[in-house]
Amino acid sequence: MAFYDSIKLEKGMYGNSGKTFSEILEELDPSENYRGSELEGLDAFQRQLKRFDIKTGGVHSDTVQKFFRTSDSAALFPEYVSRAVRQGIDRADLLSDIIAAKTVIDGMDYRSVVSSPLDDEKKLKPVAEGAYLPQTTIKTGDQLVKLQKRGRMLVASYEAVKFQKLDLFTVTLRQIGAHIAREQLNDAVDVLINGDGNSPAAATVSAATQGTLTYDDLVKLWGELSPYEMNTLLAPTDVMKDLLSMTEMKDANAGLTFHGTGRMITPLGAKLLHVPSISGDKVIGLDKNCALEMVQSGDVITDYDKLIDRQLERASISCITGFAKLFPDSVKVLTY
Fold first, then answer.
1. Nearest to residue 334, comparing CAs of 192, 199, 197, 198?
2. Sign of CA dihedral 145, 297, 285, 89
3. What's the whole-model pTM score?
4. How many domains is the chain built from?
5. pLDDT at 289
6. Strand 315-325 versus strand 292-302 pairing type
7. pLDDT of residue 195
8. What residues of the chain score a pLDDT lower than 50?
């Protein structure tokens, strides 16, 4: 059994290509060894926090300087920062509602698959005995998936934050994560609308009356997506107001759901997501099960050298992601 209080922590644990600090810790100190003990339920990083008695949350949380009492505990600080930022990304996450698959790569070059079956190819017609089955062609995209680096620079000296409670510092880091999540969502929506270089821009569906959005227009959008399922709708603020003002949206059950939980629904059962960055009067309808692939290079990236050495004022926190369209016909844009 590997004991968590005897592991030597160092900078080199961050430089391992393809593995995070937590993954390396978990290999050295597997959580399965603690089943039935008081440490069951903690992962390897959390056991290290317990080892050095570092409390990162709650009323009795420690100050930032607690991480830097020893060289071993200082090595935990970049992972703490990464986890706090990741929490912010998860809390502001809307991407999970629009992506069909997430691919994590170790590098900067990635080509997704492309499949654009014709309408006739989508029909599974009867096949005569001895005849060939219809084909679905899947190939690698000609263009690399465009990866964007999104992040923030910490601009604060160690002296300015060393006496700050970790609970408060975590809130700031979570906000950085929330900003990253919003920018990633904007990148994803841009690919849905304009394509990714391998797949074309989304087809446009026009409302019956320009300047007016009606329930019938949503039904038309639903029909145009067939045979795909319209299970997600994306709309900017002004369009959200028009949608929520529809008579059909004032149904008693819909109102109870919105007022009671804050979750917005549509009469067609699609999940309605508020995306302020979408420009113009448009609604994006998609089948989240086959519309978009998210590609991420590694995990949240921190300047671990600087953070361990307490050079916070020029330490960056970033995440590299990109998006690829999988089935172009699974996305349509309603304009009015």
1. 192
2. negative
3. 0.85
4. 2
5. 96
6. antiparallel
7. 94
8. 1
Q: What is the pLDDT of residue 1?
A: 45
- Residue 211 DSSP SS3: coil
Q: Which amino acid is located at 23 in the chain?
A: E
Q: Note whether 307 and 77 are within 8 A (CB).
A: yes
- Which secondary structure element, helix H or strand E, spans residue 62, and what is its range? none
Are 186 and 236 a contacting pair, CB within 8 Å? no
Q: Which of 147, 149, 143, 148 is nearest to 111 (CA)?
A: 143
Residue identified by tokens 């391992």 is 16
The residue ranges of DSSP E strands in the chain, in sequence order, are 101-105, 113-114, 139-140, 147-154, 203-206, 232-235, 271-274, 282-286, 292-302, 315-325, 331-335
Same domain, 167 and 262: no
Residue 137 inside a domain? The answer is: no
Helix ranges (DSSP H) in 153-211: 158-161, 166-194
d(CA 238, CA 284): 14
The pLDDT assigned to 127 comes to 73
d(CA 155, CA 135): 56
Structure tokens at 234: 């994306």
Token representation of residue 32: 């399965």
Contact by Cβ (8 Å): 334, 303: no
Q: Compute the distance between CA of residue 205 and CA of residue 225 in angstroms, rounded to an integer.
A: 10
| Separation of alpha carbons 181 and 130, rounded Å | 52
Give the Cα separation of 229 and 223 in Å (integer).
9
On whether residue 47 sits in a domain, the answer given is yes
- Cis amide leading into 30 (omega within 30): no
Tell me, yes or no, whether 183 lies in a domain: yes
The pLDDT value given to residue 258: 63
Q: Is 223 inside any structural domain?
A: yes
Whether 312 and 288 share a structural domain: no
Tell me the sheet residues that pair with 334: 205, 283
3-state secondary structure of 304: helix
Range of the domain at 204: 199-293
155 and 53 inside one domain: yes
